[in-house]
Structure of Multidrug resistance-associated protein 9-like:
Amino acid sequence: MDGKGDPAADWRKLQPPPSYSSSQSETVTGSRLSHLDRTSFLSLTTMSWMTPVMWSMSRKELDFSSLSLSPLDGADTNGDRLQTLWEQEVCAVGPQKASLKRVLLRFQRDRLLCVLCINVIITLALFVGSGVIFHEILGHIIHEESATFWRGLALSFGLVSVELFKVCCLSLSWAINLRTGVRLKTGFFMLGFKKIIALGMHSRVSAAQMVNVLTRDSNKLFGAVLLGPLVLPFPLLLIISSVYTCYILDYTALIGISIFIVFIVLQVVLTRLVYHIQQSAAPTTSSRVRTTNELLANIKLIKMYVWEQVFSSKITDIRTSERRMLQKAALIQNVVATIAPHAPLIAIMSTFIVHTSLGLPINTSTAYPVITVFNCMRFFLSMVPAAVKLVAEAALGVKRLEKFLLIENPEPYILRKTDNACAAVVMENATLSWTKPTHLAETEDRDDLVNKTSHSEVLPTLRNISFTLQKGRLLGVCGNVGSGKTSLICSLLEQMHLQQGSVSVDGSIAYVSQQAWIFYGTVQDNILLGEPLDQSRYDKVISSCSLEADFNILPHGDRTLLGEQGVKLSEGQKQRISLARAVYAKKDLYLLDDPLSAMDAPVGKHIFEECIRKQLLGKTVILVTHQLQYMESCDEVLVLKEGTVLEKGSHLDLMEAEGHYAELINKHQTQEERPQREERETTVELNNHMNGGIINPAFDIVGEDIDAPSSDCKPADQLIRQEISRKSSVTWRTFQEYCRAAGYCASFSIFLVFVLMTITMALSYGWISLWLWSGHGLGNVTSADQGNLSANPDLLFYQLGFAAMVSTLLTIYMIKCFCYIKVTFRASNTLHNSLLDKVVSSPMSFFETTQIGHILRCFSKRQDEIDSLLPHHLNGMLTLWLIAFCVCIINLVIFPIMLLPVFILLTVLTFLLWMFKGNIIQLQRMESISRAASASVCTSIAQGLGTIQTYNKMDNFTELFKKLSDANTNHLLLSHYGSRWLSFQTESLCAIMTLPVALLVIFVSNDVTDPAMKALALSRILRLTSKSQAMIQTLLDTEVRFISVERVLQYIKGCRSESSRQLQVDQVSEDWPQHGAVTFLDYEMRYRQNLPVVLNRLQVHIRAGEKLGVVGRAGSGKSSLAAALFRLVDPAAGSVLIDGVDITSVHLSNLRSKLSIIPQDPVLFTGTVRYNLDPFNRHSDEEIWAALEKTYMKDTISNLDGKLQAELTDNGGKLSVGQRQLMCLSRALLRDSKIVLLDEATASVDSETDALIQIAMNEAFRCCTVLTITHRINSVLQADRVLVLDQGEVVEFDHPDVLRQNPDSLFSQLLKAANAGPS
């Protein structure tokens, strides 16, 4: 679907980052050639087409829209072609024998062969320059008397020409290979994406696995394609070098060749070992990140429990284990990385010592060609480990995608037309399960699909379901948790396996999932979902879904961009947007899976009356709900229990039957109106005063010192525009802070070790030159033995000296590897622990204004880069740049006249880096942002498959993904081409530098400079040319990785601790508070400075042991009262006294440890049952069992494997919501607090569990002061007194009976509204 002429195209207003937004339509449709397609062969080879781009970027004049992506590199072309090839493969050999590897090779076969041919030419050029021409030059200078001027000049220019030719061929190889890799990468993830978009939403593949295949595996394939073809010609170079060195030297040259082979095998083995160690460390890393995520997601509750230290210690312990494994891997990786620069020297030492020990002839003209040939093999040796690792990982990724492509969806079973023309849905004896049964096994039915962890059920989830729903009717579906309500909805979406019976649906379907799905786009995009905008209908839908007030709060109204699954919205806002999407779609059948659960009572009543009953009047609606007060307004009621239809009929008929339904309704009426879940994420009263989103510019990923987006900012720019505006280089302050984290002395010592290692290596080559300069020594030899090292009487001295030099170098090298890893991991660990301490100690205002995803990214991706990638690239950068500096020094010592060329080289290189390095960093940052946007959309689509497929919007989201994919591909190409452009300039400069050195070598008399010294200078300058590309790349990579350090430092330096965290003005007794009286004296509170007051001059005294109900409309300040009591926010004025003690004079940990809270949403952490109840191990097993018995959880825990030591995962694993809430109640009992806060404690459970919780609380907290915050007015009728809040002020405070008797009181009005139900 190309979107041309499609009215749904209006929906695609979401643009990628500004740098490519205007060109995307042309990129996708291919209506014009890209700049790269119009580039000539010479321009492509020399990268000159990038020169105006780099200059324009430096002058801030570049219009990125002029750099459109070629259609040949786009998702459309490559995705369709690879899809066709895969289908042909499956048709030809069948799914079992189909090979995705074979398809990928066929997909880009010609380009890969072309690149391989170019790499063979590069290998030959490398050999000719370093071997043949170098040998001829040495022969020329040794036989100086017979040499001619023109031959010497020709050799000099020939060497420079070969070097420049090699640079151009290498550049051409990269240019072609980049586009080859991009096409394979694009085709790879488009092939996977098309499979994802067609999968069932409850397939065996998780969203994380889907995203991993598309992102991580495709990137590994791209890297493998880049490096793989470069190392393939190495065997050819090895063979040619073996023959040539044996021809020049003798058979002893094979010793050096054998050492290279040994080193290659060693590198491959060590690389595989590193990979296995990293794989072993991956679960530990995942555990640390998961625990950190739990900490951040539940930070408010953790602060109230005073469990910060528990989580910090747990994370630190996991980090210690992780660090040990990563240090082993890093040490081996560092050894591998340092082998390459020193392998030629070891090969040279072994060859020369054996050769001279055997008495075979060797002199300068035969020795130095061998040295340069061995050195040229370093080019491949340094790339082998990375290439082997990437190719192996890419092969695994291809295998994963291959298995993924062969997954089969459930067979279609829904009949799209009913026998009864008036019926919308007909189910006849339908039995359905989540998987095809293989054997009978007892299983637990499931309703909450979001928290399910496996599809191992083999018994049917729904059994013998039979009902008929007439068109235009409203069907209410109710039942206890686990009765099969959500499964019924999914069966109508064709997401289950039909075992028997039939399911018929007549008409189009709209679906509202139990967990609202929000995708990457604006609010309006999320509502329209590709439909054309009808402003009148849109306004009616917005009104019926009660979204106008929310749009006024959002920074850009309905044009606000929602990223990271809509993190700017509360759960209720998300659900209402999801409902608005369904209503706007104008479908025939509406499947609503408990959409009212995330809304408070007034909003829920408005939604039911205005949206479901009026806006959807005449539509067929199936409403799953726990809000039983709405059942009487439904045309029909379906009661489910344990996957079967227990009762069906009208509300009145079922009430008269006095069955299970009547029992539920009576219990519901007796135990008050069903509680509603308060909208979460941030409190409503906070939202009302925020004036624009919850993004904190100081800690957002986009950086600091940037103004917030203006009101006319394009929606697509809201999350990414500031990132592009950031400075493009990391400051020296960041390097300094990294060294401080490692220790200044340790950092300086490591640098000295690097310098010492470089000097020792230079001295080793200098020793060779000294040995060659000494020639045959002072002894009398024949003319044939002139300059023969084997004839030197001091041969043993030179051999031992050479061996001692190399041994010293290897010793320093091992010391460097060990100490360097210790120092870098000390730095990363210091940064991690400092970040953890700063974040944990930050006040709640920090978490309310900072996206949790950005903080978690610092503990996951950023930390991984600081642990592994930064030390690796920093090691390479220091090694290569010190070697380059040493080469310049050697040439200056041998030829002082080289001072001017070296000065010119350094000046031009410094200018290039100063002028253009920032541009490449900026391009890499832009690529990172567009990659994150693409991954975010991919994740969002994987999580919303049910909604996308129900609304038949697969083509729309495929087009959106293609846009973002093409944008990322464009940035990826530009960043790599920018890096290659800078590398080409540097390589060309270094290649040109060989000309003056070659001329000096040839035309400076041997009487002035010995031929051995000349050969040393020329061989060193050739090495500089071969390493110049790696020098630039490691420099760029190191600076990019330091961005992670910069981000972490922003949090470490920017976070402030909670006020008075370390202060304790008054020492309170251990048994404080003895009574539990709470007094608010002229108390005022605001969430942050410059925000309005949310609690205004409260004057309240709560007696010891009193049961107080706190009620009020949404936004009245109820949650703020809890925040004040726990000092999550410090008072703006006034004070709070507990038993006469001002809580601001008590240490925060002391205060919070004396209070208990039972939250609205029950939270259980990953760990044992005992850990969840008593993380400090302060209570005996008997005390814990006693608490569990009081909360009716003893039998449940006793049945678990391990009992108190049973592991709980995924927020309680298989425990129901009610059981989790009872666990939280047990936790509060063990704290034995005099003051207990109940925050909508029974809002998420069914009536039966609610009754158990109420009984347990009444018995357990008989002698405690209990503050019950609730929307359920009826639940506080038995309280001693009721506190009614409105706009942060106390409007009523008395016994509930007294307030009820006053018809004008706000309490009476709230009670009347709660009991009224739908009209």
Remarks:
- The longest strand covers residues 423-433.
- The two ends are 46 Å apart (CA to CA).
